Amino acid sequence: MGQDQTKHQIEKGLHLYQSNQTEKALRVWMRVLEKSADPAGRFRVLGCLITAHAEMGRYKDMLKFAVVQIDTARELEDPDYLTESYLNLARSNEKLCEFQKTISYCKTCLNMQGTTVSLQLNGQVSLSMGNAFLGLSVFQKALECFEKALRYAHNNDDKMLECRVCCSLGNFYTQIKDYEKALFFPCKAAELVNDYGKGWSLKYRAMSQYHMAVAYRKLGRLADAMDCCEESMKIALQHGDRPLQALCLLCFADIHRSRKDVQTAFPRYDSSMSIMTEIGNRLGLIQVLLGVTKCWMIQKELDKALESIEKAQELAEGLGNKLGLLKVHCLCERIYRTKEQQRELRDHVVKFHECVEEMELYCGMCGESIGEKNNQLQALPCSHFFHLKCLQTNGTRGCPNCRRLSVKPGYV
């Protein structure tokens, strides 16, 4: 298959893919991969296959094609191709919750500077790295990466990237419980979709609606949460977007649990768990298991709650997800307090405080914890964040956290 024919077949596959005929598109692209002798064409078709498998939640296949793409990029001996293939490798590992590998591949991308194309990809690299740091609950570095990605998006006038970063920032602020910002950022993403997204994939609209639903639920606006989640789910079903379907089912379950409708919540958690297991989203599975635990606690089935939470703990330890572990210890503390098992209770109290220290989840001004309840937060340029009211009350001449870290022990 020559260069022109390769190009024509790739375009044919893209047309089929955009018309929601995914399996036909995949067949066309696989044929190109088998028959084309043009390395640049093969590189491009591998990019199409990586994107399609990512959107379908076939993350292991995504990774497999990313590895082949690296070999093709080496064959082409072009730094632009190599940077793009390492970014795809990073994103494949991010989807499979291999966060340390993601960070490592992102750093490789950033060290391969040289051309304009590589520099344009830096925003996407920073976003992927931020998502990985967030998966590990390294909040300061995650925020640093997201802000860097946002700067790249603004400098390159890349509205699609800005939309994606806003959704990740929504997720970031949901995790540390500043629910106003958790809603503000996906609303900003939805605005970008409305203003600029005419030719974009509908997944951007679905993504912003999902993150809005999560924030609305946290704010107790359950009807608004349900509306946004239903819209997101409708698009996810139309486009066969399995990862988003799993997240929407989790959100539906959480909404029902918030309404104390445990019987409706359980089957939604089960459906979400089934898809999360199938696609390999272990971070999502932790959230599902924590939700199931809370349902059992509402029903006062404490032994069943402990069973679920044990699985969540195992996953969180495996991933290095510190916030997941903190939530596990917090729920265990409540369960063992009810069961009046003092030794286990003390054990989880100690581990809970160790997690708080490790993640620096406290305000460097008042010393009170961050992420325990809904609170307005403000980040300084160094990406350390504090209670907004503390910054307004005390003001700041530089960051107290950075000052503390720079204090060197004197000679004895």
TrEMBL record:
<dbReference type="InterPro" id="IPR052480">
    <property type="entry name" value="RAPsyn"/>
</dbReference>
<dbReference type="GO" id="GO:0031594">
    <property type="term" value="C:neuromuscular junction"/>
</dbReference>
<dbReference type="InterPro" id="IPR013083">
    <property type="entry name" value="Znf_RING/FYVE/PHD"/>
</dbReference>
<keyword id="KW-0597">Phosphoprotein</keyword>
<keyword id="KW-0770">Synapse</keyword>
<dbReference type="InterPro" id="IPR011990">
    <property type="entry name" value="TPR-like_helical_dom_sf"/>
</dbReference>
<keyword id="KW-0472">Membrane</keyword>
<keyword id="KW-0677">Repeat</keyword>
<comment type="function">
    <text>Postsynaptic protein required for clustering of nicotinic acetylcholine receptors (nAChRs) at the neuromuscular junction. It may link the receptor to the underlying postsynaptic cytoskeleton, possibly by direct association with actin or spectrin.</text>
</comment>
<dbReference type="InterPro" id="IPR001237">
    <property type="entry name" value="Postsynaptic"/>
</dbReference>
<feature type="domain" description="RING-type">
    <location>
        <begin position="363"/>
        <end position="403"/>
    </location>
</feature>
<feature type="repeat" description="TPR">
    <location>
        <begin position="123"/>
        <end position="156"/>
    </location>
</feature>
<keyword id="KW-0449">Lipoprotein</keyword>
<dbReference type="GO" id="GO:0045211">
    <property type="term" value="C:postsynaptic membrane"/>
</dbReference>
<dbReference type="Pfam" id="PF10579">
    <property type="entry name" value="Rapsyn_N"/>
</dbReference>
<dbReference type="GO" id="GO:0043495">
    <property type="term" value="F:protein-membrane adaptor activity"/>
</dbReference>
<dbReference type="GO" id="GO:0033130">
    <property type="term" value="F:acetylcholine receptor binding"/>
</dbReference>
<dbReference type="Pfam" id="PF13181">
    <property type="entry name" value="TPR_8"/>
</dbReference>
<keyword id="KW-1003">Cell membrane</keyword>
<keyword id="KW-0802">TPR repeat</keyword>
<dbReference type="GO" id="GO:0007271">
    <property type="term" value="P:synaptic transmission, cholinergic"/>
</dbReference>
<dbReference type="InterPro" id="IPR019734">
    <property type="entry name" value="TPR_rpt"/>
</dbReference>
<keyword id="KW-0206">Cytoskeleton</keyword>
<protein>
    <recommendedName>
        <fullName>43 kDa receptor-associated protein of the synapse</fullName>
    </recommendedName>
</protein>
<keyword id="KW-0479">Metal-binding</keyword>
<dbReference type="GO" id="GO:0008270">
    <property type="term" value="F:zinc ion binding"/>
</dbReference>
<dbReference type="InterPro" id="IPR019568">
    <property type="entry name" value="Rapsyn_myristoylation/link_N"/>
</dbReference>
<comment type="similarity">
    <text>Belongs to the RAPsyn family.</text>
</comment>
<dbReference type="GO" id="GO:0005856">
    <property type="term" value="C:cytoskeleton"/>
</dbReference>
<dbReference type="Pfam" id="PF13639">
    <property type="entry name" value="zf-RING_2"/>
</dbReference>
<keyword id="KW-0863">Zinc-finger</keyword>
<dbReference type="InterPro" id="IPR001841">
    <property type="entry name" value="Znf_RING"/>
</dbReference>
<dbReference type="GO" id="GO:1900075">
    <property type="term" value="P:positive regulation of neuromuscular synaptic transmission"/>
</dbReference>
<keyword id="KW-0862">Zinc</keyword>
<dbReference type="GO" id="GO:0005737">
    <property type="term" value="C:cytoplasm"/>
</dbReference>
<keyword id="KW-0519">Myristate</keyword>
<keyword id="KW-0963">Cytoplasm</keyword>
<keyword id="KW-0628">Postsynaptic cell membrane</keyword>
